[in-house]
C-alpha cells in the first residue's frame, strides 16, 4: 500500500510516520486484503491535533475518517478506531450484500465546476447575467456501481450525496442523505 503522510504547518517525524504505516496498514489489511493507497494529513487547531485519512480500496470504494485529540498520537488513535469500525461494517455489508465482487469498480471522467453565487446589481436590484461565473473547473470520476454499493460508498465517504452510473442500465443516478435521515435515490430513467 502506498502512503502519503503529511502535516499542515506541522512537522511530522519519522517515528510518527512509521507508527501510522504499521498501525493503519494492519487495520486496513485486516478487513481488506487489497488496499491501494492511503493519504493521512495531520494539522493543529488551537490546542487540538486533527488527523484525517482517506483510504482507497481496490474495489474502487473510499473510506474516510477523522480523529481529534490534544496529542498527535491520540488523534491518530481516534482516527484508527473510526477507520476500523467503518471497514468492519463495510466488510460485513459486502458479505451480506454480495458474495464477492468479480470486477473492480469502473470510473468515468466527468467535469466538475465550482460556481460563484449570483450577485444582485445594486443600481437596478436585478440579478447578474444569464450565465453563472465559473470559479474553478476540475475533473472528477464517476463510478459505475449498483445502488446498494453507491449507498455504502456515500456512507463510507461521509458525503451528503453521490453521483454514479447505475451498473444495471448504464444511466446516471444520484443517491443522497435526506433531512429525515433516510436515503433518497434519483433515477431519471424511471420518471414518467
Structure summarized in a few sentences:
With 192 residues, the chain is of the alpha+beta class. The protein has three helices and nine strands, in the order βαβββαββαβββ.
CATH homologous superfamily (4th level) name of the largest domain: Ribosome hibernation promotion factor-like
- Beta strands, count: 9
Structural class: alpha+beta
Strand order of the largest sheet: 5-6-7-8-9
User: CATH topology of the largest domain, which one?
Assistant: Double Stranded RNA Binding Domain
Low-confidence stretches: none
- Helical fraction: 25-40%
CATH architecture descriptor text of the largest domain: 2-Layer Sandwich
Return the CATH class of the largest domain. Alpha Beta
Note the beta-strand portion: 35-45%
Helical stretch tally: 3
Q: Kindly report how far apart the N and C termini lie.
A: 47 Å
**Can you tell me the number of structural domains?**
2
Shape: globular
Q: Give the overall average pLDDT.
A: 82
* Major sheet characteristics: 5 strands, mixed
User: Which H/E pattern describes the elements?
Assistant: EHEEEHEEHEEE
Subcellular location: Cytoplasm
Function: Required for dimerization of active 70S ribosomes into 100S ribosomes in stationary phase; 100S ribosomes are translationally inactive and sometimes present during exponential growth.
Subunit structure: Associates exclusively with 100S ribosomes, which are dimers of 70S ribosomes. Interacts with 100S ribosomes.
Protein name: Ribosome hibernation promoting factor
